Amino acid sequence: MEKINYKKYYPTAAALYFTYFIHGIGASILGQYKQDFASMWGAKLLEDGTFDVSMVVSVIAALGLGRLISLPFSGPISDKFGRRVSGIIGVICYALYLGGIVFAPSMAVGYMFAIVGGIANSFLDTCVSPSCMEIFPENGSIANMFTKFSMSIAQFLLPFGIGFVATSMLPFRTIFLIAAAAIAIDGVLIAILPFPKANATADDEGKQEVKKEKMKFTPASIALICIGFTSSSTFMIWLNCNQELGRLYGLADPSKIQSFYALGTVCAILVSSLLIKKGLKAARILIIYPAISAAMLIAIYFIRIPSICLVGGFVLGYAAAGGVLQLCVSTANEMFPKDKGKITSIVMIASSVANYTILNVASYLTKVGGATNGPTNVVLLNVVVTVIGVLLAIYVNVESDKMEKNEKAA
């Protein structure tokens, strides 16, 4: 049987990774411009002269609601109609979100555009992750981690872009509109470039279609899905609430936290890829990295000095956002190799629930705690969620080791 030449799909992979570069901007840029949006939407002024940003945090949470609404459909659409269709829908919705939210006249309209952004994210998730694992079947986990790498590069460059916009006296809408145009152009490439066969694996090239079995969930697979919730909560809370913490701790330029965070994430992707290549199980990283995150968050809560925010930004970028969610998706894809789109949807539904519920809780804690207690209360929330993630990962690893021993004994 003729072996598939996967090199012809590399330009497709590049176009797909670029959508996650734009997603890296879209997922964090609202958090960087909270004061601008709060002012635009008529938020009240606080005692320190800044605007109450709780309504903006609620809008950011709506990204999770949009994902939650659409993920039950995006996975099956990706599996049934092809990755390309899912990708094109995602690109169109992302262009609408980025181009529309900056002109939203009120929080309510902004909330609707954020839901569209969440829908975009879900269709990209169920296009890009499975596609890249199918383009690089021998290195699926690493290929999926590089979606996060693309996001991290964007998030590392974003503060420099924000600085350029500010010094050039350009409107804050500038980066949003450039990103919207860029992803629209990339969408044209996704529409015309070739895609590999959906749900193909390295072991079944050229084999006849195998009758699909119904997905069977074990306690370990359910725990893995729950890690989609906890791992997303850890980095989403930090990503969207670190600016207020930096100001509380006396950091002169809180936007620097974002650069340290992104740098940590880039380092994690490279190091983790090397470790996996050397034989470290992806499931082990699901324990190690969240444990590091929990320890760092506890240190941030007790050591209230400006530099801890920068150190924390790097460490949490490495350990919380350094591909844990992507490795969770990859591990789940390995459990359900014939239902990659669906299981990606399910894990991302858990991630979306986190995005919506946890950020709404963070918004509430920010509002009731005010500028003094709100940011530290959010850190405590993050500690609790992250520790739960560590316990879930330990269970997944124990069960995984039992299954491996049983298979060897059989």
Gist?
The protein has 410 residues and is mostly helical. It has one domain (6-199, 215-409): Up-down Bundle (Growth Hormone, Chain: A). The chain contains 13 helices and no strands.
Describe this structure in words.
The structure is a single chain. By secondary structure, this protein is an all-alpha fold. The protein has a single domain, classed as Growth Hormone, Chain: A. The protein has 13 helices and no strands. It has helices at 10-32, 34-40, 54-81, 83-101, 107-135, 140-167, 173-192, 219-248, 256-277, 282-302, 306-319, 324-335, 340-409. The longest helix is centred in the C-terminal third of the chain and has 70 residues, at 340-409. The protein is globular and about 65 Å long. Mean pLDDT is 86; it is low at 205-210.
Question: Secondary-structure blueprint of this entry?
Answer:
Blueprint: H1 10-32, H2 34-40, H3 54-81, H4 83-101, H5 107-135, H6 140-167, H7 173-192, H8 219-248, H9 256-277, H10 282-302, H11 306-319, H12 324-335, H13 340-409
Using the coordinates shown, work out and report the CATH topology.
Answer: Growth Hormone, Chain: A
How many strands?
A: 0
Give me the secondary-structure category: mainly alpha
What global shape is seen? globular
Tally of separate domains: 1
Helix content: over 70%
Q: Mind telling me which CATH architecture this is?
A: Up-down Bundle
Radius of gyration of CA atoms, rounded to a whole number? 21 Å
How would you describe this structure in keywords?
single chain, 410 residues, mainly alpha, Growth Hormone, Chain: A, globular
